[in-house]
Amino acid sequence: MATRGHVQDPNDRRLRPIYGTDEEDSSPALTSLLAFLEVGSYYVVQVLKAIGLQRTGKQEEAFTLAQEVAALEPTDDNSLQALTILYREMHRPELVTKLYEAAVKKVPNSEEYHSHLFMAYARVGEYKKMQQAGMALYKIVPKNPYYFWSVMSLIMQSISARDENLSKTMFLPLAERMVEKMVKEDKIEAEAEVELYYMILERLGKYQEALDVIRGKLGDKLTSEIQSRENKCMAMYKKLSRWPECNALSRRLLLKNSLEGEVHCSAEDAVKFIEDRIMEASQNARHVRGPHLAKLELIRRLRSQGCNDEYKLGDPEELMFQYFKKFGDKPCCFTDLKVFVDLLPAAQCTQFINQLLGVVPLSTPTEDKLALPGDIRALQQHLCVVQLTRLLGLYHIMDKNQKLGVVRELMLRYQHGLEFGE
Q1: Rounded distance, CA 379 to CA 384, Å?
Q2: Residue 71 region, left (φ>0) first, then alpha (ψ -120 to 50), else beta?
Q3: Is-contact 146 119, C-beta < 8 A?
């Protein structure tokens, strides 16, 4: 019968004060340990002494003592955990694997030691041994997580394999068969298990099978992330070039409907759909950015495809200006707009920046004072304009004196902005 518990050290109570010793000053700990050793020879005390030596700069002595204890193959949990801590501080995680390999040979039914062995292999990237340790653990304690640890180890072997052909002909097919066995026996319990199955099928290029899994009973387990199931369906529709279904699912998600949306394929349909969303958003007290950005994205895509329908969506410069008026005081405004600045003709960049500056509420400038923002919202708007100015290359074309003037101005604006943080 498998045992979850570890081998308890009877000296726990006496060792507790030593564990609590200050890490930066290990001298008192060493003194306590030497006194403890006079009573008898205990593995854990010797390891704690080695930790004290390690932390006082005596690395060679610490390593020698630790290896002496490890050679005796201790099986008490305190000694094993202390050695693990020591090896971690020595940056020798591979020695932890040797430690638990010996422990599971002596205590073959320990669930805990087999788990530690698996994790030790994971830390050093021994994926083949992880697979074996996972299956050994599952045979002792037939729990789903342990079985799928082995499956995950196969996936890791496929990812790390230098030969992609080996990955797709051996590791992934074996992982697929292992999961299918659990599916046929109706033993799939957790969302992570479905995620692994989906990952395997996707890596094998079995997009239809992956879609069937997500849309079937197993897909009901995908609940931890919002729209996780729908997003995976969308990814598979794209891989399969099933654009009508992709279109319908996209509309459903955007409209927040429980039914599949209609399939709209023309540019006119896309324009109308976006305009309707913008109209809905305008009636909502809370501004939403998505529909406005969708319009700019559609213009960019129509332009890249050589379509002549972009005029129906409006002038990009005006659309970005209106977007700035709505969202310019948000830190995300710059990152939202920067992907669309290539829609502006080079000759209009200066005009565009001046247009933005015209709606930023700044104080009236004087001979010795800059036009400054009066609150944080205005400061954020002005910062967005400065970022766009730099992105468009308008600072780059300045001469040396103009650039120095901008530097002085920005330093003054920075000092002024600190006032809002007081």
Answers
A1: 9
A2: alpha
A3: no
Cα–Cα dist 36/44, whole Å? 11
Which residue bears the tokens 């498998």?
A: 2
Cβ burial, residue 231 (10 Å; 0-12/13-18/19+): middle
| 188 contacts: CB under 8 Å, gap ≥ 6 | 144, 182, 194, 197, 218, 221
The pair of three-digit structure tokens given for residue 248, joined into one six-digit string = 């319908």
CB 218 within 8 A of CB 188: yes
Could you tell me the pTM of the whole model? 0.73
pLDDT in tens, 58-75: 999 999 999 999 999 999
| Dist CA 210 CA 208 (whole Å) | 5
Question: If you search the block for the tokens 């087999």, which residue do you land on?
Answer: 114
Q: Is 344 helix (H, G, I), strand (E, B) or coil?
A: coil
Instruction: Tell me the C-alpha distance between 215 and 209, whole Å.
Output: 10
Cα 349 from Cα 372, distance rounded (Å): 23
> Which residue matches tokens 């008490």?
76
Q: How many CB atoms lie within 10 A of CB 97?
A: 22
Q: Is the dihedral of CA 156, 159, 163, 167 positive or negative?
A: positive
Write the pLDDT tens digit of every residue in 41-57.
478 888 888 998 998 99
